[in-house]
Amino acid sequence: MAKKILLIDDDALVLKSVKRLLENQGYEVISVKNSEEALKVSESASFNLIISDIRMPGENGIATVRKIQEMLKRSTRADIPSIFITGYASEEAPIDALKLGAKDYLLKPFDFNELISSVKRNIG
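The structure assignment produced for this chain is given below.
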């Protein structure tokens, strides 16, 4: 059975290209464009990994993943590993992501091989 990834990014081109890349590697990918959609699908679906942009309109990716992790804890489901991708390179963002337990932090534009390596390291 394919491992399932939740992909969150407000950029349609990133969603399309990363989804295609991951599906070509045999993963099942659910892609959403904002925090609201991510929280909604996380209520009813389970994932092996979350890949999220950090800087998005409305709630940022770190806050979104934090809410998903809190929701999982309340429902006794296990934490999901997360990878953050961003073109926004503040000093605080990587620290906040690592405090949340992020497994990786990639700056856009990132190399697709680097993303695939990170995914495989974290969920096989």
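Interim note for the steering committee: The beta strands are 4-8, 28-32, 49-53, 82-86, 104-107. The helical segments are 12-24, 35-44, 61-74, 92-99, 112-123.
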